[in-house]
């Protein structure tokens, strides 16, 4: 096993080393499997009480993992559901099994868990409080193994939250320079690094969006409202099309969108660089729905049939070039 994996879970890698390991795992199936296996064993054993109870808990958990290897092969999970979906299923197993086998000790210190979704994938996971989170491609969610008086998570990328109700413990999403506070509700947050825009779309319930240093002057959203923050000011809109949230089901929806904006999203979702050598291509508009699993090249080929541009691919460098002759 790659020694970096154990250092990753012991928090002994630098931030750049952690990012490099996760990026390598996207293209290395063996490394992916090792990370999944270590993640589950590490998390399960870490939830056991101290002393002899911990040893007993570890033995039970190891038996459980052995049973999982026999009954559900990871290769099958990865092939049938996709890597990110497999990880999501295993994360849920981690939580349920830990409760069933060893319980949660009263003096347990909540460790931070980091969940990363590779490019071209999506995932759903269940948090310790019962909240469900869907994560889009290239997203990272950081959350504690056990919540305290407040339920705070950190998002980079895009996530849809179906928050478990708990009047005594508000749920807070830290997304870049904003916080989104909720008690029990459904909402979507878009907050990718290097994108100078954060958006929150509310489906049901209510959320309050605010800068961490100025919660008093936060903005409360009502259902079907979308709040966009461009690092300088807020803009409140009505949600125009709920189909934009179909990414949770593996569908990307574009409605009369400029190709320039579509390409920006594809770069985020598939971790590729798209170069446009003919500027007029960027002004094209397109309406359509695509399956995430089709991949960026197939999506561009479908759009190409309507707008008739050329495509050149450099798979080794993950660069796609669009141009017109």
Structure explained in plain terms:
This protein has eight helices and 18 strands. The chain has 325 residues and is α+β, with helices and mostly antiparallel strands. It has three domains: 1-105, no CATH class; 109-247, Jelly Rolls (Sandwich); 250-323, Phage tail protein beta-alpha-beta fold, CATH 3.55.50. Strands 1, 2, 3, 4, 5, 6, 7, 8, 9, 10, 11, 12 and 13 form a 13-stranded mixed beta sheet that branches. Strands 15-18-17 form a three-stranded mixed beta sheet, covered by helices on one side. A hairpin with a 4-residue loop joins strand 12 and strand 13 (234-238). Helix 3 packs antiparallel against helix 4. The radius of gyration is 21 Å and the shape is globular. The termini are far apart. Residues 118-208 form the FecR protein domain. Keywords: Membrane, Transmembrane, Transmembrane helix. Pfam families: FecR, FecR_C.
Q: How many beta strands in the DSSP annotation?
A: 18
Per the CATH scheme, the topology name of the largest domain is Jelly Rolls
CATH architecture of the largest domain: Sandwich
Strand content: 25-35%
Kindly provide the name of the CATH class of the largest domain.
Mainly Beta
Indicate the low-confidence ranges by residue numbers: 43-54, 64-110
Gap between N and C termini: 50 Å
Structural class: alpha+beta
Shape: globular
């Amino acid at each position: 096993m790659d020694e970096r994996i154990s250092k990753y879970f012991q928090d002994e890698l630098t931030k750049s080393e952690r990012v490099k390991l996760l990026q390598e795992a996207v293209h290395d199936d063996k490394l992916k499997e090792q990370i999944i296996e270590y993640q589950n064993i590490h998390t399960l054993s870490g939830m056991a009480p101290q002393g002899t109870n911990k040893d007993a808990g570890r033995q039970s958990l190891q038996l459980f993992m052995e049973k999982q290897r026999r009954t559900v092969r990871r290769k099958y999970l990865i092939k049938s559901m996709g890597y990110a979906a497999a990880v999501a299923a295993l994360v849920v197993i981690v939580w349920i099994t830990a409760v069933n086998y060893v319980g949660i000790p009263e003096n347990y210190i909540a460790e931070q868990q980091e969940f990363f979704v590779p490019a071209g994938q999506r995932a759903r996971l269940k948090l310790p409080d019962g909240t469900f989170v869907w994560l889009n491609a290239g997203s990272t969610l950081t959350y504690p193994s056990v919540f305290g008086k407040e339920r705070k998570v950190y998002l980079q990328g895009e996530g849809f939250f179906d928050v478990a109700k708990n009047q005594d413990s508000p749920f807070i999403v830290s997304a870049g320079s904003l916080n989104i506070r909720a008690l029990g509700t459904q909402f979507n947050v878009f907050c990718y690094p290097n994108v100078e825009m954060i958006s929150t779309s509310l489906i049901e319930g209510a959320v309050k969006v605010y800068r961490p240093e100025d919660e008093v002057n936060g903005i409360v959203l009502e259902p079907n409202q979308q709040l966009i923050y461009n690092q300088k000011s807020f803009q409140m809109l009505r949600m125009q099309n709920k189909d934009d949230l179909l990414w949770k089901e593996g569908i990307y929806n574009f409605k009369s969108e400029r190709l320039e904006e579509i390409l920006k999203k594809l770069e985020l979702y598939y971790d590729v660089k798209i170069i446009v050598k003919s500027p007029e291509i960027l002004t094209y508009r397109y309406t359509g729905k695509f399956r995430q699993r089709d991949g960026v090249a197939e999506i561009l080929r479908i759009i190409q049939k309507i707008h008739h541009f050329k495509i050149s691919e450099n798979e080794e460098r993950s660069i796609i070039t669009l141009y017109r002759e």
